Amino acid sequence: MTDTTRFWWLRHAPTAAQTEGRIPDADAEADVSGAARLATLHRRLPARALWIASPTRRAVQTVKALTHVRPLLIPALTEQDFGAWTSQRHADLWDSGEAAYRAYWDDPVYKAPPGGESYAAQFARTAAAIRDLTTEHTGLDLILVAHAGTIRAALALALTEGRQPPPLAASLGFCIDPLSLTRIDAIGPGWRIGGVNLLSEDDAR
Fold first, then answer.
1. What residue ranges carry the coiled-coil annotation (predicted)?
2. Cα four-point dihedral sign 23, 25, 31, 32
């Protein structure tokens, strides 16, 4: 058995809420009508792997569109909780002049939306789940269907390499498109990033 654990991170299929610039809630439905794109993505994935997903509807629907395997659902892999801003449009929040929303973008790592959580808090729970998975499934291929923020948190963990504090602000700069693939390997105590945002919309053109 190798000590390399291979993480195949997939962002879920697009949602109407995201297309409209709104912050989706946990029940937002995924658009899995792109059969050709899904087939291309499926061909890139390992045939034998443990399927894992965020328990949100859009993540589970994406898994069902890709495989008949029942995934392991891990609540810690859900998207950042945007609290009172959930289901609202970013443009409307900005135009409203709400002080809390404007202030949030001054420090999107450590400030939390009203009734929600900060990106730093999301990173902490995501990193803990990844460490547990690495310990429990060493040497395996893990396919994880989750969210843009979750995948950015995984990249932040891979970039940390023991640095404190972790480079959370830098990780927010990664583009993670719907139905894109991000490859990260846990190699013993270290990490290797094999690719980010692979099979994105630009790749499909």
1. none
2. positive
| Mean pLDDT, rounded, for 64-71 | 97
Identify the structural domains of the chain with CATH numbers, from first to last.
4-204 (3.40.50.1240)
pLDDT tens, residue by residue, 108-148: 999 999 999 999 999 999 999 999 999 999 999 999 999 99
Q: How would you write the chain as a 3-class SS string?
A: CCCEEEEEEEECCCEHHHHCCECCCCCCCECCCCHHHHHHHHHHCCCCCEEEECCCHHHHHHHHHHCCCCCEECHHHCCCCCHHHCCCEHHHHHHCCCHHHHHHCCCCCCCCCCCCCCHHHHHHHHHHHHHHHHHHCCCCEEEEEECHHHHHHHHHHHHHCCCCCCCHHHHCCCCCCCCCEEEEEEECCEEEEEEEEECCHHHHC
Contact 76, 126 (CB under 8 A): yes
CA 88 to chain CA mean position, Å: 20
- Average pLDDT rounded to a whole number, residues 33-42: 92
Alpha-carbon distance 164 to 162, whole Å? Answer: 6
User: For the residues 42-70, what does the mean pLDDT come to?
Assistant: 97
